[in-house]
Amino acid sequence: MTDTLAPLDAAARVLDADTYDCILLAGFGGPEGQDDVIPYLRNVTAGRGVPDERLEEVSHHYRHFGGISPINEQNRDLKAALEQEIAKRGLDLPVYWGNRFWAPYFTDALKELHEDGHRKVLVLVTTAFSSYSGCRAYREDLATALADTGLTDELRLDKIRQYFDHPGFVKPNIDAVLNGLRELKAAGKAENAHVMFATHSIPTAAADVSGPREARPDGTPVPTGGGEEWYAGGGWYVDQQRAVSALVMDAVEQEFPGTPWSLVFQSRSGDPSIPWLEPDINDAIEALDDSVTGLVISPIGFVSDHMEVAWDLDNEAKETCDERDLAMVRVPTVGVDPQFVSGLIDLVEERHVAAAGDTPRAREALTDLGPWQDVCPANCCMTRKPKPTVSSAAADGGIGA
Prior knowledge:
The chain has helices at 37-44, 52-58, 60-64, 71-89, 106-115, 132-149, 167-186, 204-208, 237-252, 281-286, 307-310, 312-323, 338-351; strands at 22-27, 95-99, 120-125, 156-159, 193-200, 261-266, 294-298, 327-330, 389-390, 399-400. The protein is of the alpha/beta class. The model is unreliable at 1-8, 225-232 and 392-401 (pLDDT under 50).
């Protein structure tokens, strides 16, 4: 069934608050030793027929760091920070942690929280933007984990909305870019500085169908009638990233007026014949005018300094800058910044109340794209034949789409 609600009509997509039992922090996962690298890459590429020889060729990023991705340790840190914030607010919400592609897996986390007596779960995904890999794939994999554990009828999993324009995500990114420009200024390199906001490249076909498909990113309806022509293209993934980047640059304007900026893409993989979002960050660096004196790179598309930040930016992009003798400052992701952690629990309190009748926290958003939806339409971010997903809507009965 097609959901005909307009995606910018946020009130129509808001679910009533409820009382939940716990939080599931949903991560991507990463290897934690040299012996883990190939099994981990097999998990990530499962079903694509990629031979181990090819996986070994692409494993050098992890091998460079001893086979250890920083992402798991960062999620441990985030889990601990969330628990501290929850305790400070007096909430009775234990935090569990599970990953899509490495231990602890979703199945492990679901078994654990079920054994502890929890049944109603708020899912907090470690991605801020709308895309198949950033939202729908998590919901699909959680539905698979429910089926694999036999807990489909035992657990209700409701995902917290995308938070790309929530103050808790935006404000730390503003601080980071300001500090990066100040660092360039201290080195005498800020007069003709440029800011690049880096995010993960995805196939343009996936970008076109990111977010709800019943309207264009500006909210303009498209003709209905079925078929591939039903959605005219555009997608929300890039629109959200540009909107947040513009917010950041508006905030730094007073101290660094007129600083130019651009949105660039990184970490492309897969068949080179398939179009992906461009420009690649290294191409964009090479294309900068010779008058540019310094570059701030903000990994706006990521919430932690994991492998694709550590390698693609701190190594590859840095090498490209060095070849041009261009001063570069790579600023941090939001990580466990107190503003981000507090903002995540604000998002929890939009959905969770201690008792029926309590007033939930007001929903905050800093762009006119939000607050983002609680309810994901059946075709939201759909890039292939649909699979069952855990629901963003209680009305879907736990499994939807």
